[in-house]
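Appendix B. One record, verbatim.
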Amino acid sequence: MRFANKLSSKLSNKLPNKFVTTFSALLLGLVCGGPAFAQIPLTLDTAKGQLQGVAVADDLRVYRGIPYAAPPVGENRWRAPQPLEGWDGVRDASAFASRCMQRGDAADMSEDCLYLNVWSAAPNQDALQPVILWLHGGGFSSGAGSNPGYDGAALARQGAVVVTINYRLGPFGFFAHPALTAEAGAQSSGNYALLDMIAALEWVYDNIAAFGGDPINVSIVGESAGAQAVAALLASPRAAGLFHRAVAQSGGWMGLGINRLPTLSEREARGSADAEAAGATTLEQLRALPAQSVLENFGGGGIITDGYVLARDPSLIYAAGQQQPVDILAGSNANEATFFGGSPSTVQALRDYAANQYGALAEEFLTLYPANSDADAQAAYQRAFTDALAWQMRQLALYQGQRGLGAYAYYFTRVPPGQEARGASHTAELPYMFNQSAQHPEWLDGDRALANTMSNYWVRFAASTNPNSRGLPTWPAYRTSTAQAQTLDFNIEPQAESIPSAQVLEFFDKAYAQLLSELEAAQ
């Protein structure tokens, strides 16, 4: 056994990462006479009943469409997720469940959508592998855990049990109304999507050991809106103890800018207006509305300061050091804004944006991001958007690092082949982080190596807080607010860099101080 572990460790520094987990399992099986590949049963027991998963090759088990709460329909619409009833017999877990209600081309969607999926290559049910729970992006209005881009196979083969979830979106996930708040009492209304995520974490705690996962070594990982949810859960005592590490990719507690969150009263006013326009004056009438009508006619929105999931605006929670003491890995991409439309297209539009977003700091913003012509305005805005998000992700890491917790920041600069016009845009890192080389035949050898490296860091962070290991570039901890603080630049040859500039950091420090002052004055 000692020989097998030693040899596996040596070869892991020489073989491509995607071969390491499979080789290690095979070697241990040959030396110890035990199983060579994943051996958790295809039919297994959960707290609510039995599941029948599917085998992918010899080394991977996948369980799809697992319910984690009661369907949020009828009387359960706009309520916190309710306890799930058990089932008799064996439930088929071979197919994904429906997506949550969302606009656009979302075939197979339903209001009954609180389901999750599990990938495991654990050698047995006692493996206690680290757990990665993925929170998808999509602006809190689209997406699903079944998206092919979130396939957890590669990360599972690298040593993690991977869970992806659906959570309620748009007006189903974030509708606030005075009558709903009165019905919920202390629980308020409006943040149902966050409560869904907490319910999924509770399911993981109760059930993940059956899949070879460790219920007390859970990392929540999210991108864009999913990363904003990660930051909100860090600030919420409702999720305390349910996760132990966090990864936020291109999204923090303020969304994609330096902003406060909407308040409960603001969202209740909006919800009342939507209800009145729909002719629904009672909760019974609201809950009787067809799901498609709610989707098409009610506002969506996102996370709010509801007084229950989030007692105060997260900026105040973080500034007071009241967020959960959880290790963190956070970062963003070099060309975030090229993913989005709606950029200011004239000098005047940029000036208006600066005034609305930064108030007394507007002129300083325009000095840092000048536009001498309408042609320059969009590029100036895109630089500012990217820098604001980079600052926020580093600040998220800094808050944890200054408390002595594990904290690491990154900056993804690799431009994927074929995406030169966009650059390293929002979402560009996802196929690398999920190590999806097989889905990208256009990649170069360097891209495949980068995917192996990046996914290896993520799994190692989930396993032990420190993403560093022999054979990988050193990733320095992030513990200082000075311009010398280093992030890991993910490109063909990852290396530590001091990004962004001191001038950029100083400006967004001022913008954040201005926001905190406004929030404190409003209390």
